[in-house]
Amino acid sequence: METNNTNSFEPKVVAFVCNWCTYAGADLTGTSRIKYATNVKIIRFPCTGRIDFMLLMKAFANGADGIIISGCHPNDCHYTSGNFHARRRWMIFRNLLDFIGVDVNRIVFSWVSAAEGAKWAEVVNESVDQFRQLGPATSYQKLIKNSEFQEVE
Amino acid sequence: MNNLQQKAQQLLESGNYGLIVGYEKGTSGKARPVFIRKAEHASKLIFDESCDQNIAVYLYRQEIKHNKKKVIVANHHTLKSIVELAAENQVFDGDFMVLAFAENGDIIELNTFEEIEKHVATLYHGLTEAEAAMMKKIEDMSLEDRWAFWENEFSKCIKCYACRASCPMCYCPTCTVEINQPQWISVPSHTLGNLEWHVMRAMHLAGRCVTCGQCGKACPLELPIQLLTYKVALDSKQFFDSVAGTSICADNALAIFKPEDHENFIR
Amino acid sequence: MQKKIGYYPGCSLEGSSREYSESVVTLANAFDVELVQVPDWNCCGATAAHNLNSILSFSLPARILAKAQEAEMDTIVVPCAACYNRLTMVQHELKKNDTLRAEVNGIIGAELKCDIKILNIVQFIQMFVADFVASKQQFLFDKKVACYYGCLLVRPHDVLDFDRTEDPQSMDEVMKSLGANPIDWPFKTECCGAGMSVSRTDIVGRLSGRIVKEAADRGAEAIIVACPMCHSNLDMRRPALEKAMGEKLTIPVLYISQAIDMALGKSQKETGINRHFVPVNISLQNRVVVPEVVLEKTEEN
Amino acid sequence: MARIGVFICHCGENISATVDCEKVAKVASEFPGVTVSVDYKYMCSDPGQNMVKEAILEHNLTGVVVSACSPRMHEPTFRNACAEAGLNPFLCEMANIREHCSWVHEKSDATTDKAIDIVRTLVEKVKRNEALAPIYVPITKTAVVIGGGVAGIQASLDIADAGHKVVLVEREPSIGGHMSQLSETFPTLDCSQCILTPRMVDVARHPNITLYTYAEIESVDGSIGNFNVKIRLKSKSLDEKLCTGCGACIQKCPVKKIPSEFEQGLGKRTAIYVPFPQAVPNKPVIDRVNCTYYIKGKCKVCEIVCPTKAIRFDQEDSFVEVQAGALLLATGFDVLKTNFFPEYGYGKYEDVIDGLAFERLASASGPTKGEIRRPSDGEIPKKIVFIACAGSRDPAKGIEYCSKICCMYTAKHAMLYKHKVHEGTPYIFYMDIRATGKMYEEFVRRAIEEDEVKYIRGRVSQVYEKNGKLIVRGVDTLLMGQAVEIEADMVVLATAGIASPGSEELAQKLHVSYDKHKFFSEAHPKLKPVETNTAGIYLAGACQSTKDIPETVAAASGAAAKIAGLFSNDLLKRDPLIAVVKKCAPPLYSSCTGCFMCIPVCPYQAIDKEEIKDRSGNIIKTISHINPGLCQGCGTCVAFCKSKSIDILGYNHDQVCAEVEALLNEW
Amino acid sequence: MSAHIENNSLSAKLQHATEVKSAKCYQCGKCSAGCPVSNEMEYPPSVAMRLLQTEDPENDKKLLKSQTIWLCVSCEMCLSRCPMEIDIPKAMDFMRQKSLAEGLSHPKSKNIISFHKAFLDSIKFTGRLHEISLVADYKLRSWHLGQDVGMVPSMLSRGKLPILPEMIKGRKQVAEFFKKTKKT
Questions:
Q1: Is the ipTM of this complex over 0.95?
Q2: Which of A28, D470, E99, E106 stands the most exposed, by the fewest C-beta atoms within 10 Å?
């Protein structure tokens, strides 16, 4: 990975992925030895349908600068419809975050199949670039700092 | 004695009904909920513009839940909430009678869910002009301004949960905010925890909020938190054509899907 | 009640194909439709423009659309298939491509809405004529005819969305309603040689010759067209066709509007068939007017 | 107090080349709760596994994190190792530092740091893992095979021969499918019916096979081991027990001019009919759309002539329910109608036919008794043009994929024609010849060299009729696009193979995934070619993608072997990673509100209602309940439930929250 | 992301300008089989697509110098039958404009080009096409002075040739279009 960015900021990125498509796709990225940014770390879920929006809130509250959510393409869900349910959930959630002033560009949603090892690397690299551009999630970090302060009090 | 009071008196005197949940005159021009059990108290009942509180929330309160001889005087918010509660299996057909009002002020007796659903279909579903203007004002702000606005509002929240208590749809015996393993939402009322609470509350009302605004009315700090649930309600309508409180059998907007649901953000 | 509709004749209909314009106007008048010309219209640029200069090929038709829009015309009829094709294609491209539209708007100095309904002659007939023709028809067009659609009326289907590209039927249906017997033949949408009329008359001779010969061989008594380019190649260029085919070809070529006019009993002058190079010696039978009740009964049997 | 063992694998140099494994082990040893942390060259080797086992015993570990390759690779290996050392296998997790770390990053501190983060995340997860026991489900040893073509026939016989019960369901009045329509088969040119009909008879006679023809799947519920299949038996207007198949009714039926589906419209049939003489069962059905009695209310000739009084005009559709442990989809394919190709004149010119119709013309039992004659006038064609890829490889008007079988059957058609009409000339317009099976290329060469089939490389642009001939306008692309015009007597279109009609509805009934062309999807394109993504439902033949006969039969036997394998156990063992509705002490019993909004969320209909009762049987409350036999563990209901009353074993709320926190902290 | 390799081929330029992708062609030849003028062309449409696919500068030049691109009558038969929906007419338009711009047009296609130019000249000055001027202009350009002279009297007698051109009011504006679009 070339880092042509003079800005040395490296975003913390957590990826929530489903076991059957994107996790397997990311395995394929590995077996194909395609390189991508180290910033992204993966948490495995059985299905995108399992991913609770509260986990995204948790990730932000724990200092994530960006989040990737990825699962099977429509019609390819291992459980036939978990991704469709997830899609509806994200449609509502994303707009709600935008409504309260959270930059939704900090969350990247994608469909990456078990065959799309190269796409996974692309998604990661593009997302990390995007998060670098956005810079640290300062507005959220301010809240985190305040909360720590209060809790210590 | 007006029609409503007469009606209430008759119902209680008949012995078929033992409790009427309705409105009475409160302080400073506001109405407040009242529970009438005796015919002679029927004259306390009022119904006018001041009766804007959504009192469907009382229907499943433990104290009266099992009383099958109850009547509820319902404004249009309350009616929609009853439909939504019926869809969510929280109130049961035949457990109560509803007194609603026609536009000319006539009392309408609604005995079954089907009748209520039919009546609700004639009502206006959507935001008032003033509410829509508030939504627009926020949506027109820049992202930074929106954040600043809500950060300021959330910083004031004291987590009294009046919003939750007033909402007919917040009926969970254990709210997620009270779960401590895992600790979904931090306990103190700092801005971050408050934000998490309000986002969660709004998300949990997706496809369920009837836009009565009761949460905002109940808030002692007058935070405009009803706009959050309005947002999910409007999006549910726009994306999925789902309007809460219109059908006693419809599935929740987020419990179903269509393969052709259209978003523009998934890569 | 008289209906008003926008009209874009195009250059050929003012010159070498003026009989087409005459017959269309006659037809419209017969059915109480007033054709209002797009004010100060210009040439659509035809094949030449898109062969040589693509942005010009958008700008010329765009000006026409702008003029129609200015005159608040929601629908325009364009009898020339070539002009119809250009205008429709350009409006489609401009509608879907914002950058291109901005550029063209800049050149022509207008804001195009791209929502004008553009009708070809067959669509015009379907909308304003077909339902009423029975009541006004005086002669039965009891001939074997070959309906020749050419290229520009039906292709590309994605954009024009008119009839189908293979073995289209709309003109055949119109002719059937006049009492004609349209033949089934394979060259309905073959190319006549189009704009090569002057520059490569030899090619036109071969292409159009094949078409005319095929129609004649299959016993057609007239070829019905809807495009001035096709007409001039099939009619005016007949000597070149005969040379290429090595035989005499006498089958006349009629615009579909002329065919209807003839069935309505319009004069040679009104239909403009006197202007053709290949003489039109078709005489039509008087239509026996049968009271409607009886007519229905015979249909049932 | 947790005692976690962390085992870092070098995977030879696959991991250690870019990750400092020793450092990872050292840092991990300091994580709270970690008792032992070691690194080793090959963790999956016997000595590596032994290290894990010994550490479990020595340190009395409560959890194990093997930090190595993807769990999709070796999770079962290490879970078994743990089980052998007495640790519940579900207390073992794998940290994927190979596919997700060492292989995708260069050697650097950042890469090592990421590996440490991954290990920490899994350590936090495993601390919260629970000991779980696998779920055992009893297996009903009956298979329902859907579709009675060659695939369904082969699979049914194989499963039945293995000693298990089979219920074979066929939509048409007879089994046999498309193969029964074929004349000869490539590359051997042996007669299709000669090899198929004995197998059809075997199906009818086999004691383990129950055959339902003229029947369709109404609904399916349940899951692997225990499906409940409801089958609609369409009314045949016939008492099959009484009917002897004497055929008197067919002979006397006055409606004789119905185009026969079996003969591709080239032959005629009656309203009461068997599709073809060798049909199994050889008993007729009444086609109610065309039967005079059903149209006009009178006739009943068949009833009068029937010697056993078997005709039942008032018979209605009936239903049977079958309990089955496995389902096999063998619904086959269909050919694309070519009406969308007006330039080829199919449907307009009688002598432009499709490949299946040509099969009937060439078949000895067909409408012309095997003579190649034009449908229009019965003449023997002197020139036939075969057009390959009529619909295939044509995203504009047909389908984008290659139908795979057409190259071969077109070569066969041309050959059969040449064998029957020696003086005739067959032309084939083709673009590529795909002859990749055993003896296939040789077959095509024979067609070209010995039978003088004229192959022309190019697509036909137009076919039109002139003076009784079909003019075929094409081009020879091997001669710089030189025009070719052939005056043919007959044109045969090698139409595309497409999914059978109704595939989509069936897939939805069965919760089986399908591709955009409505072919059913296999679970894995290479390693699970006969399984679907739904456990217990298998695939065979052309319902998955167009296949020729050898491939179809191979797939059918493969699927049958899978089903026989499944049926070889009495109980089915399943991972217990499923959702559960949490219960708690009275008076709450459960935080579930009984809103039941989760019911439509479940793709497996695994959620139903459970009544909580007091000792005297009074209902205290009604809450959701998840059927462990049906739940597949997707967790969609878990994320949906607002009161967090549903959780999922293996990915529970506590675990995933801990993972998020562990992943993001201490960077 | 891998950087784009500098691709100067005609095929790449075509795709960039018009989104027509020659690589989609799998050489079935249905276009050539249906093309009314393919017999006259040295490279029938499918062959032209193949030449583009090679991305060989020599082959690119062959195309731009060919008569093929000028013989195409834009009848769109190829597109309407192409299984891959390749817009060959659009590709032809593009190649004609490239050929002119690079001065490679085939000498035998001069007539066709002259006619198109004369056509555009005619509308440049009057806003509409005036057929007598067009033909006169074409003849001067092509030196085919005698061609079609025989037709003129009969056309005049049938009223098919108005002597004086129709001048539209907006003709200056139309002339302006020619200037504005010249650079493209």
A1: no
A2: E106
| pLDDT(D495) > 70 | yes
Chosen for mutation from B145, B190, B191 (greatest number of chain A CBs closer than 10 Å) is B190
- Asked if the model's pLDDT at residue D259 lies above 90, the reply is yes
Most E CBs within 10 A among D400, D428, D475, D479, hence the mutation to make, goes to D475
Per-window interface: E 23-42 vs D, CB < 8 A: 26-34, 38-39
- Catalogue all structural domains in chain A, each as residue range(s) with its CATH number: 13-152 (3.40.50)
Per residue in D343-381, pLDDT (tens digit) is 999 989 999 999 999 999 999 999 999 999 999 999 999
Q: Does B178 touch chain A (CB under 8 A)?
A: no
Are C51 and E93 in contact (CB < 8 Å)?
Answer: yes
pLDDT at E112 over 60: yes
The Cβ of residue D82 has, within 10 Å, a number of other Cβ atoms equal to 24
Contacts of B240 in chain D (CB under 8 A): none
Please give the residue of chain D at the shortest CA–CA distance from C215. Answer: D466
Six-digit token pair at C205? 């001779």
Architecture of the domain defined by E10-103: Orthogonal Bundle (1.10)
The domain spans of chain C are: 3-121, 138-286
Nearest to C166 among D343, D465, D471 (CB): D343
- Mean pLDDT for D251-273 is 95
| Across E48-70, average pLDDT | 95
Fold that domain C138-286 belongs to in CATH? Rossmann fold (3.40.50)
Whether B and E touch, i.e. at least 3 CB pairs below 8 A, reads as no
Determine the number of helices (DSSP H) and then strands (DSSP E) in chain A: 5, 4
- Residue D628: other Cβ atoms inside 10 A: 16
- Per-residue pLDDT tens over the stretch E75-111: 999 999 999 999 999 999 999 999 999 999 998 888 8
- Report the CATH superfamily, name and number, of domain D142-234+317-332+500-567: FAD/NAD(P)-binding domain (3.50.50.60)
At residue C46, the pLDDT reads 85
Tell me if there are at least 3 CB pairs under 8 Å linking chains D and B. Answer: yes
d(CA D531, CA D508): 16
CA distance D134 to D140: 19
Q: What fold characterizes domain C3-121?
A: Glutathione S-transferase Yfyf (Class Pi); Chain A, domain 2 (1.20.1050)
| pTM summary value | 0.71
Using the Cβ of B251 and the Cβ atoms of chain A, whether some distance falls under 8 Å is answered with no
Q: Are residues A55 and D113, on separate chains, in Cβ contact within 8 Å?
A: no
Q: Is the peptide bond before D32 cis (omega within 30 degrees of 0)?
A: no
- How confident is the model at residue C296, as a pLDDT? 43
Q: How far is E37 from chain D (nearest CA, A)?
A: 11
Distance (Å, whole) CA E48 – CA E71: 13
> What separation, in Å, do the N-terminal and C-terminal C-alpha atoms of chain A show?
43
Count CB pairs under 8 A between chains D and E: 74
Question: Contact D362/D370 with Cβ under 8 angstroms?
Answer: yes
Question: In CATH terms, are D142-234+317-332+500-567 and D342-498 the same topology?
Answer: yes
CATH number of D579-648: 3.30.70.3270
Residue extents of the structural domains in chain D: 4-133, 142-234+317-332+500-567, 248-305, 342-498, 579-648
Q: Do D603 and A35 touch (CB under 8 A)?
A: no
Question: Which of D12, D94, D7 is CA-nearest to residue D55?
Answer: D7
Question: Which CATH architecture best describes the domain D4-133?
Answer: 3-Layer(aba) Sandwich (3.40)
Q: Was domain D342-498 assigned CATH 3.50.50.60?
A: yes
Q: Could you give all domains of chain B from N- to C-terminal order, each with its CATH number?
A: 3-121 (no CATH), 129-240 (1.10.1060)
What mean pLDDT is predicted for residues A104-126?
Answer: 93
Question: Cβ contacts of residue C196 below 8 Å, gap of 6+?
Answer: C203, C204, E73, E112
| Residue of chain A nearest D516, judged by CA positions | A75
Per-residue pLDDT at C292 exceeds 60: no
What confidence tens digit (pLDDT) does each residue in D7-16 have? 999 999 999 9
